[in-house]
Write a structure and sequence with these properties.
Blueprint: E1 13-18, H1 24-35, E2 41-45, H2 48-61, E3 67-70, H3 85-99, E4 108-112, H4 113-116, H5 123-128, E5 131-134, H6 141-150, E6 154-155, E7 164-168, E8 171-174, E9 183-188, E10 191-198, E11 205-208, E12 211-214, H7 224-238, H8 246-252, E13 282-285, H9 289-317, H10 327-330, H11 334-341, E14 345-349, E15 360-364
Parallel strand pairs: 1-14, 1-15, 2-4, 2-13, 3-4, 6-7, 13-14
Antiparallel strand pairs: 5-12, 7-8, 8-9, 9-10, 10-11
Helix pairs in contact: 1-2
């Protein structure tokens, strides 16, 4: 049965959408996406499990509808580890798609509260850091290798996973974010003689392509300008740097350091949010999304306070402790998130009844 979409989310403002339990919410999003041709719908899920469930429902009801997803990092705030490579690849592939021109057709983006509250590199960064190769084109292999190294790809002996590359003589194998198979570039001198997709398990060719476009694997750039911004910002925040600071030493040398993503804003002049990638979107929020945001920001504050205490102890002992960025550099506050939403039509989903207010229109979709 076709979902009858009432006059909602057509202008900036707040709607409380009652009668939208699981299943009904998917049909609502499909109808909104059909009306938002080219502009997109952004739905903020309360957590990863909910995002996976909703994505499965959307695939069931509308298998032809393009559904992008933007997961949050799978590590704790102020962690010493980097996001999982699969998560990093998924995020970069989605951000790359969002930064380009979207078709004048229905589509939507699913994300989570944790991802929505996290600051991101802006769309201009994604648009300016692509790399293209074409069969018969002139590219020095060392230029390609330098691009891969500076943009988060890991050099390995055999390419098996997204974000890896390998060099063997005149062959460069690489596995870009979003690709379903790796690519093998066959160089003859400084010319790309052939580009093949291959099966990483058997190493056999699947097919050949005429051209290949690459996007960074990491949100952290390591070009000279980004390195200089990091060095300057790090010293400004934390003062003189000792020789025992492995993060500062690695970045200064142009090397990737595990966990460096937690200082991401220092590599950019300014940061963006997921809303900046979808300026004309209709936004919908999961039930309990506000509670999830409160819990997330409390966890961020707790982790930050713990790092500050550890840093103080480390300085007293003469070590080189973890130096955390202030939370507002990495994450949005609830007030900032709400302020940014004021530019959008926003629908809060409620499985059953909903309560309105002076600035909230209640619509029963049951």
């Amino acid at each position: 049965m076709t979902f009858q979409l009432p006059d909602i989310l057509t202008r900036p403002g707040r709607w409380a959408l009652a009668g939208t339990p699981e299943g009904q919410d998917a049909r609502l999003l499909i109808a909104l996406a059909a009306r938002q041709k080219g502009k997109g719908v952004l739905h903020v899920c309360r957590d990863d499990a909910r995002m996976a469930t909703l994505e499965a429902a959307l695939r069931f009801f509308a298998p032809e509808l393009p559904v992008l997803s933007l997961p949050a990092w799978d590590c704790q705030p102020y962690d010493r580890v980097s996001p999982n490579a699969d998560i990093a690849a998924k995020r970069m592939d989605t951000l790359n798609q969002l930064s380009g021109a979207r078709p004048d057709a229905p589509w939507l983006l699913l994300t989570t509260v944790n991802a929505a509250l996290q600051r991101l590199p802006g769309p201009d960064y994604l648009r300016s850091t692509g790399f293209s190769a074409a069969k018969g084109g002139g590219i020095k292999p060392e230029v390609l290798v330098e691009y891969l190294s500076r943009n988060g790809y890991s050099r390995v002996s055999t390419v098996m996973e997204p974000g890896e590359f390998a060099v063997r003589g005149g062959l460069v194998d690489l596995f870009p974010p979003g690709a379903d198979a790796p690519y093998r570039l066959d160089f003859f001198g400084d010319e790309v003689e052939n580009i093949r997709r291959f099966d990483p398990a058997s190493q056999r060719t699947i097919d050949t392509v005429e051209a290949l476009s690459l996007t960074p694997m990491s949100e952290v750039p390591l070009d000279p300008d980004a390195i200089n911004r990091f060095r300057s910002g790090y010293r400004e925040l934390f003062g003189a740097v000792t020789k025992e600071d492995p993060l500062y030493e690695a970045v200064s040398a142009g090397r990737r350091q595990i966990g460096m993503e937690h200082w991401l804003p220092l590599f950019f002049e300014k940061m963006a949010t997921v809303l900046d990638y979808m300026p004309q979107a209709a936004v919908t929020l999961d039930p309990l999304a506000a509670d999830a945001a409160d819990e997330r920001l409390k966890a961020i504050a707790d982790h930050y306070d713990a790092r500050l205490a550890a840093m103080k102890r480390g300085l007293e002992e003469g070590g080189a402790p973890y130096k955390p960025l202030p939370p507002e550099r990495l994450y949005l506050t609830v007030g900032e998130w709400q302020q940014r939403l004021e530019r959008f039509p926003v629908g809060q989903l409620h499985p059953f009844e909903a309560v309105g207010g002076p600035d909230i229109t209640v619509v029963d979709l049951g």
